[in-house]
Structures are given as structure tokens and as C-alpha cells.
Amino acid sequence: KQQHQLDEENQRAALFHSSAPSSSLGADGEEERETVPLLSCKMADDKSDTVQVSEDTAHQISIDPWYQVGFILTTGVNSAYVLGYSASIMVPLGWIGGTCGLILAAAISMYANALLAHLHEVGGKRHIRYRDLAGHIYGRKMYSLTWALQYVNLFMINTGLIILAGQALKAIYVLFRDDGVLKLPYCIALSGFVCALFAFGIPYLSALRIWLGLSTVFSLIYIMIAFVMSLRDGITTPAKDYTIPGSHSDRIFTTIGAVANLVFAYNTGMLPEIQATIRPPVVKNMEKALWFQFTVGSLPLYAVTFMGYWAYGSSTSSYLLNSVKGPIWIKTVANLSAFLQTVIALHIFASPMYEFLDTRFGSGHGGPFAIHNIMFRVGVRGGYLTVNTLVAAMLPFLGDFMSLTGALSTFPLTFVLANHMYLTVKQNKMSIFRKCWHWLNVVGFSCLSVAAAVAAVRLITVDYSTYHLFADM
């Protein structure tokens, strides 16, 4: 009997917590409070499908000011990937399509990320992982699917970053000795090793701190050098060709791939994990960080992307620093800065995997720099980055990785899931118009995701027939 009474009390407590207040994005953009019911009828009826959300983590959470999170987001946006956007976005889309696409992608990305930020506390629980949020709303199957999508997204972003770091190292070597001895796969292997050394010494995302400042400095160095030298080349170079290259069918596929690159440029696919590090009030502070990312933080991206395309037209290199002309020492500084910034940026995108490994398999005892914890990071993170580096060296097709990542992961995680989760949680507070708007986003971005995946696979197939495994590009 006492056990029966205890069970009833637990059920009432669970019902109370499932109705806890949660932030909502009102029609006027202001934060409002509302009661959130138990989110899924399936979850309410099928207890075996319920995912128990845990805030247990081996990493630090809820300690970072909003501007530190803003710099984390900006570091991701202005990583060395920006040196490829002139070729991967502007060349396939042209001036009008590329310019409008970048602005529109920024707007819809800001909107989708704001929706996701407002779902950080749902059902009376704080969700520090994307998969926890999806599992709480939909159940265990979506927990697993979301984790798989996120893993693919972050793995491919990290693969691309290692390729970029390798390209930067090779560019430095070619400036001094263009003898073909040091090939790209060797540079990629060296880059992976340096990234692993950095991962061993930085235990969690919040520990980046001063490294975020250095990352910003490195970003500004290579972006400013690329901008100024492209400007000079553009002034001294005769008329450029801005014609979109390729046959009619090629243009269709490259345009779709460029659309995937647009959403890839602004989104991390790990917003809940980043938001977990921010201080309360969580939603308001995250909104500040997002506004910083999509305003001031995106200006360098626009500057170098537009200038690179203006200077070199459709002949722009997929790595802009390979197109610019100027003193060797300046190009060396730019490439070295790109390499170092990439090492820091990779740690950001690898942090969800590190958190999972540290929490699941770590000892949980001692400080982060205890010998046994350092050795654990060496073994586990070293193994993860070894696989990343091997894939990067085997398939160094950077632009194709950006397209495929945007198609398979960024579209579903940032736009499809964010809109559908918001619709599921807030549907009782929505007008018919707002429901239709979110469903339009879900269906539209799902179709774009499928089309972009087909286009990206085609691009990889074409490149694979042109190049070979461990190609020296």
C-alpha cells in the first residue's frame, strides 16, 4: 500500500514537471511564458519509448557569458571555409543569385536557430543536447536518428576542416618549393595530428576562452589579406568573366549544391550543445549571441566572398588564397593563420562527440588535467580524429563535402526538425497561419534536402572519376 501511494505521488510529480513553464517565441518576437503539456501522445501512451533526459555531463555547462557564445558561433561562421565560398556559392549562382541567396540564407538561418533556442527548456527540463530534445519530443527512435544526423554533420564538417588545414599547409610549402614532393595527403595527416594535440589539451568547449580571441585574430588576418589582395588583383586584372560555367544540366546540379552550401555557411547543427554552456537567462542570452553572429559576425564572410568573386570571376579557386597574387611572406602569414584558426574551429565542431565520449566512457574522477583523464583523451579523441583524418586524406573534395553535409544534415537538423519540433511543442498557441507557415518550412526544406543530396552525390561521383583516392589536389 505504501508503495502504491508512493507511485501515485511520483506520477503527480511527473505531471507537474511536464507542465512546467517554458519560454515561447510570441508573434511579436518577445518572450512569453506558457504551460507545456507532455509533448507527444505516443510518449504519454508508450512509456517504453520515453527518453529519460539527463543533464549529467563530464563537461562544464551554464557558465559562459553570451558574448563568449557569440564568439563561438562567429568562429564557426568565419572559419577557413569562407575562403571557398566565392567558388562554391558565387560561381554557381552568379551575382544576383549569390547575393540574394546569402542574405536570404542568413535570415532563415537566424529564424530557425531562434526557434531552436526557444526549445531549450521544454516540459520542465533543460535539454543540453540536440538528441535529448528530439527524444523528449518524439521518442527514442528520433533520439537515435537525430544523433546519427548530428554525428554525420559534425564528422563531415571536421573532415572538411582537416582538408582545409591540409590545403593551407600545402599552400605554404608550394610558396617556397613547388617540387611536388609534399603532397596534400601528407599535409592532411600532419593537420590531423596537430588537431589531435590541441584536443588533448582543451578538455571541453567552455575551456576555449582565450583561444576564441586568438581564433578571431587569425580569422581577421586571413580574411583581410584575402580581401586586400583580391581587391588589388581585381583592379589590375582586365575584365573578368562572370558567366556561370557548365552545361544546362550541370548548372542545375551545381545550383542545387550551392543552395546546400548557403545553409552550411551559417549553421553549426549543434546549437543546443552550444546553448548548454551559456549562463541564465538561457534563451535571452542565446538570442543576443545569435544576433551577434548574424550581424557583426557575418560581415567578414560577406566581404571576402564578394571580393573574391569580383576579383577573379568564374575562375575563382576553391581555396581563395591560391588565386591571390602578392609577396610570399604575406601569403604565408595568411595560410598559417588559416591553418591555426582551423585547428581551433575543429575543436568546436568536435565537442559534442567529445562530450559524449567523456561522459559515457570517462572515469568521472579527478580534474580535467589529471594524468588518467589526459591519457583517456589521448586514446579516445586521438582515435576519433585518426578516422576523420583518414577520410579527409582519401576524399579531399572540399566543395563536395560542403554540399553533402548541407544536404544530409544541415537541412534536416536546422530547418526541418527545428520547425517541426516548434510546431509540435507550441501548436496549441499557434494560429492557422503560423501552423501553415511551419508546415511549409518542413515540407519545403525536406524537398530541398533530398534534391541537394542527389546533386552532392553526383558531384562526388564526377570528382571521383576525375581524381583518385588520396589525390594530390
Automatic annotation (TrEMBL):
**Region described as Disordered:** 1-32
Domain (Amino acid transporter transmembrane): residue spans on this chain = 66-457
Q: Which UniProt keywords apply?
A: Amino-acid transport, Membrane, Transmembrane, Transmembrane helix, Transport
Q: How does it sit in the membrane?
A: Multi-pass membrane protein
ATP-binding among keywords = no
Please give the GO cellular component terms listed in this UniProt entry: plasma membrane
Q: Which GO terms describe its biological process?
A: amino acid transport
Q: Where is the composition biased (Basic and acidic residues)?
A: 1-11
Q: Where in the cell is it found?
A: Cell membrane
Residues passing through the membrane, by range: 66-87, 93-116, 151-176, 182-203, 210-231, 251-269, 290-312, 332-357, 378-398, 404-425, 437-460
Highest taxon above the source species? Eukaryota
Q: Entry's PANTHER family?
A: OS05G0424000 PROTEIN-RELATED (PTHR48017)
Q: What is this protein called?
A: Amino acid transporter transmembrane domain-containing protein
